[in-house]
Amino acid sequence: MNDDLDKIDRAILAALQTDGRMSNARLAETVGLSETPCARRLKRLENDGYIERYRAVLSRSALGLGVVAFVYVRFAVHDRAVAMRFEREILAIPRILSCHNVSGSADYVLQVVARDLDDYGTFMRDQLRSLPGVTSVESSLSLREIKANGGLPLP
């Protein structure tokens, strides 16, 4: 943790992780500041890169995306150019929520959403397995989400 953050900065960040649409007045009240100093601190936190962006968290169920899968992707040949092509193509697929290059038996772990199992199967067959470098995939389907979008820890 950066030593430039004091207790109030951390409180601002924690409050905004809970509610990113919180008004400056409510944020100031929450952290025990008046509005002007709170707004200045918030602007500094944004400018210093502690706050990357604001966004809405959408409901998967309301959007009809009932399947969440964690997909372990393996490459047979580890060629940098192929990996870069794979990563570029992954970025363009909206149903892939996250992609991590990992250590261990897989090369990448993806979090994927789909309407149902048929939709997921079609995605696997028509898109994922045809991506550059992919030689095998293994899926783990989420049975129940316990925690999501938890926010970063702020000691």
Automatic annotation (TrEMBL):
Bilayer-crossing regions: 57-77
Positions of the HTH asnC-type domain: 5-66
Keywords noted in UniProt: DNA-binding, Membrane, Transcription, Transcription regulation, Transmembrane, Transmembrane helix
UniProt xrefs under Pfam families: AsnC_trans_reg, HTH_24
UniProt GO cellular component terms: cytosol
Gene3D superfamilies registered for this protein in UniProt: 3.30.70.920, Winged helix-like DNA-binding domain superfamily/Winged helix DNA-binding domain
GO MF annotations, alphabetized: sequence-specific DNA binding
Signal peptide positions (record): none
Swiss-Prot/TrEMBL GO biological process terms: regulation of DNA-templated transcription; response to amino acid
UniProt cross-references to InterPro entries, sorted A to Z: ArsR-like_HTH, AsnC-type_HTH_dom, Dimeric_a/b-barrel, Tscrpt_reg_AsnC-like, Tscrpt_reg_AsnC/Lrp_C, WH-like_DNA-bd_sf, WH_DNA-bd_sf
PANTHER family the UniProt entry points to: LEUCINE-RESPONSIVE REGULATORY PROTEIN, TRANSCRIPTIONAL REGULATORY PROTEIN
Protein name: DNA-binding transcriptional activator DecR
Organism: Paraburkholderia saeva
Organism classification: Bacteria, Pseudomonadati, Pseudomonadota, Betaproteobacteria, Burkholderiales
